[in-house]
Design brief:
Elements: H1 26-38, H2 44-55, H3 64-67, E1 73-81, E2 85-93, E3 100-106, H4 117-134
Antiparallel strand pairs: 1-2, 2-3
């Protein structure tokens, strides 16, 4: 559960199965996002700037944002790469509830595979439904 960045864009987007460089896990990404965006790792000014950037992001409209109920606020950052890799990490604010930090990573077994935005949106719905059921 560690993030291991070793290269810069765009080279870090090319990761082959079994590689450990330029990789992470959903848990590591969510933990880092929570610390930076909701914790005290950054100053209030920097934290507010990060959240503002993520809220205004438009590359995730078909990903986590598409799986969140209407009226919920989302701040996210997307990613993609070889092997159909498509990722999204987000802070989700349900009305009158504490924020939820969610990280969804996906890939395929073929290098030139197309990524699937609907998969991320559907995984979001499933995760949020599970959280709702758990908190009843």
């Amino acid at each position: 559960t560690v993030t291991n960045p070793e290269r810069f864009e765009p080279q870090l987007n090319e990761v082959h199965p079994g590689d450990v460089h330029d990789t992470s896990t959903p848990k590591a990404l969510a933990t880092s996002l929570q610390a930076f965006a909701l914790g005290d790792v950054l100053s209030t000014e920097k934290r507010d700037l990060l959240i503002d950037w993520m809220k205004r992001n438009t590359t995730g409209d078909n990903l986590i944002r598409a799986g969140v109920p209407g009226g919920w606020e989302v701040a996210d950052k997307t990613g993609s790469g070889s092997y159909g890799t498509r990722n999204d990490i987000a802070i989700i604010w349900p009305p009158n509830k504490k924020p939820i930090v969610l990280a969804i990573l996906s890939n395929h077994d073929k290098e030139n595979a197309k990524y699937d935005d609907k998969l991320i949106a559907e995984a979001t719905k499933i995760a949020l439904d599970a959280l709702k059921a758990k908190n009843k």
